[in-house]
């Protein structure tokens, strides 16, 4: 029997409410991170500020040390940012690394029940916790920049003016988050109404219940005013159509009970 690798359960990442929906599987958690366009990264800006800072950032899972690692193996989280931003300065000044959390959520459906309290979403969410330090070498920075660019559109890095010039390399900082632990939470299926409501004909005969599938879809690429390439590149056309197909199927699959 093959055993999937899991993040260790610690007080800060153990799912308590609806714990049956929780997952610690590396593959599941990393996949959610890698398919979410915008990650939300939280950290403590300073001891004297009571509120945590939360930033929308682009990030991706990878391993510079073991580049052939699969999505279900231990990986770092690379985050892209500007060299002088506060999160970069704090990470640079920390010996161990800046402690932070990375969160991602995908909504797969609107779950419409008989009563307002029973409404829900079908969703996939993931949270990573770890310590962030700036990537120091150009080799690892280029590795991470390629991963991040190809997360936006698969194959895009190879179809741009590369490598970045010295100004671009200097102005960009990549954070490597050494992940301490993580967890995910997944809800799929239809409405879960209480028996007392399901037995009431006056309610069930007038209230529609079910799931509205939700998925991210890309439209036809629109060229810029300075674009000189007549046809949409095949890699871009393929990425749009394939991702739309996969996103739609994921939303439809989520309607079924696990």
TrEMBL record:
Residues 182-202 are annotated as: Disordered. Residues 190-202 have a biased composition (Basic and acidic residues). It comes from the Eukaryota. Pfam families: Pyridox_ox_2. Gene3D superfamilies: Electron Transport, Fmn-binding Protein, Chain A (2.30.110.10). PANTHER family: 5-NITROIMIDAZOLE ANTIBIOTICS RESISTANCE PROTEIN, NIMA-FAMILY-RELATED PROTEIN-RELATED, FLAVIN-NUCLEOTIDE-BINDING PROTEIN. This is Flavin-nucleotide-binding protein.
